[in-house]
Design goal:
With 135 residues, the chain is mainly α. The chain has a single domain, classed as Lysozyme. 60% of the residues lie in helices and 0% in strands. Helix 2 packs across helix 7 and helix 6 packs across helix 7.
């Protein structure tokens, strides 16, 4: 079991027991934690890269000219992730006339085609994400 999971589980237990103040995470920190456990060198089953697990085709579309060198750079990964989500959130707002909720934000990140009916696994991760960033 990863030390990130153990550490996150321990913090959750302390939160539940009321021994730590509840503090929301920023969306990018929560996304990185869920997608890769904050591992900048993570590579997913479909070749996703960086702490945000960005598909190679999206990295090439939104990323810097030298994508291989930047894939393990957290600042570069954040720039690419933000560009992707600016585009997706803009489309969401044009379509639904409102910004996405935290739950919808994660679905837009992980499975944008499922925004109206996310698969169970995506919905479970989106709920975890919402809990991390919510009040």
């Amino acid at each position: 079991m990863s030390k990130h999971i153990i550490m996150a589980g321990g913090l959750l237990c302390l939160l539940i027991l009321g021994r730590l103040p509840a503090a929301a995470m920023d969306r990018w920190a929560a996304l990185s934690l869920i997608e890769s456990g904050n591992n900048d060198a993570a590579v997913g089953r479909a070749g996703e890269v960086s702490r945000f697990q960005i598909k190679p085709s999206l990295w090439e579309q939104y990323g810097p000219p030298d994508p291989v060198a930047a894939r393990t750079n957290p600042r570069a990964a954040l720039r690419v992730a933000r560009a992707i989500m600016n585009s997706r959130c803009g489309e969401f707002e044009r379509r639904f006339h409102r910004p996405p909720t935290d739950f919808e934000y994660y679905v837009l990140w992980n499975a944008p085609a499922q925004i109206q009916k996310p698969a169970r696994a995506v919905a479970e991760r989106a709920a975890r994400f919402s809990n991390l960033v919510g009040p």
